[in-house]
Amino acid sequence: MSSPIFTPELPSDPVFPTTKFTPVSPGSRPGPLRPGPHPLEALGWTVGVIVVHVIAGLITAIGIMIWIVASTGDAGLLRDQKQLQGLIEEQIAIVTSGEQFLFVLVVLMAVGLRLSFPPGSAGQPALARLKNRLGSAGLGLRHLAVTVVMVLPVSLACGQLYMVADKVWKAVLRVLPGLPDIDSIQTTDLLEKLATDLSTPGLIFVLAVLPAVGEELVFRGVIGRGLVARLGVVPGILITSFLFAIVHVHPAHALAVFPLGIALHVLYLATRSIWAPILLHFLNNAWAAVVTKYAEPMKLEQIRDDVLVPWPVLLTAVFCGICVVVYLWKSRIEYRLANGESWRPLYRSVESPAVTAIKERCRPPLFLTLALLVSVAGFYTAAALFAPDSVE
Length: 392
Hints:
mainly alpha; four-stranded mixed sheet
């Protein structure tokens, strides 16, 4: 059953209107009802993500080292660091799988503890509080369809941005050779190695399922929750997306995922469901994994991130992505109380009221719906017309 649709009368905020929402300037002191994390704690969470990845990788690598020495019975490997490192690199799929698995375990525990407390005034059980604070609204069919449709244009646009940024970064390294060379930690290089070593289901699980769950719980569920509530919607989304980008370390990769972070967060706030950004993140990563594994064997090199697509495809992809983001916000989920009033806390959030309320979807303007349909049709038409020109 589809949710009712309504056009809310929300006159307060000129950019993101709401009945009771009051934007908080970065220099002001937030009220006691606004949730965390505050900006400093958000930075701590971001550093923690990097540290956990490093420690999880080390733990997995040490475990593999012990297994190699024990299985070969050659204790001399411990003294031959180059040979041992080479043997560990041959097990890169296991290292990455173990690192991602340990990362998600730590995230589940940390996010669970952070969002289950304090108890709040509603007296909900800890699990119910956790679900409500993460966003437990069901994903409607329209939002589900828009999420699926936006995967290819957003992924393609971000991939092309990565390609350009990577060329610029390499040019900077040639001009300023003193900068640290971090090309060896690019996710794209790792992706190609894993595509060779892992089966398709294993590749998707390691590079799509685990990162989507772990990163979305941290950046949308925790960091974004506090920054949007304390700083306002636009600053909160931008800063959260920036923090999401920098954990990818490589400058080109970070720049490419920044717009993806914005799209993920708008989708999160619009749907009030943590499953929506997890789904989009999963589909984006799964698409990249499948393309890396099968583009060359199937002679589909034109859809890889390191190949410049024809400009009509790129322009329609960017336009489609913009239309999708605007449409998502204009069709966001709101709650109406039994007395007919729109429900809001004192801050923009994904939570639902503790009292009985009706979940309703805002009605986007007709011209926006038409623009979305035209942009989607234009993108897939351009892709169909120009893609064959790149096939050898």
